[in-house]
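I am sending you the entry underneath: sequence plus fold tokens. Let me know what the token row says about the fold:
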Amino acid sequence: MVATGFESSGPYYPGLVSDDTALTASQYRAVQHGTGVVGGVWRAATAGQAGVIGVIQDKPVLGDPCVVQYAGVTKWEAGVAITKGAKITVDSVGRAITAAATASHSVYGEALEAASAAGSIIAVAFQYLGPSVNNA
């Protein structure tokens, strides 16, 4: 299900896929800096943690260049049903989920659309907002 009424718009980081994972199944999922020694290397994000840098916009294979949107309105794959206006964090594979009010989750934006179920693609206003305990 593709977002209705919104298109991704905002600044992007070009980069490379990390050495340890291919991101071909990660389009519209959150990523973070990888472990490579040169800048611009990305890896899939993991549950609720700080360090998410943006949302990947394409489907790169291992080592290919990719585009990561780090601010503005982005399409983001939902990991659960999400209410419009909910604060967003990430699940264990980089999908958008509703942020719980805990210090262990960071908030990365607000849902501009509702998601009916996991796998829905929704529009999110992406911006790091800090720990969810301060943003619930």
Residues 1-136 form one domain.
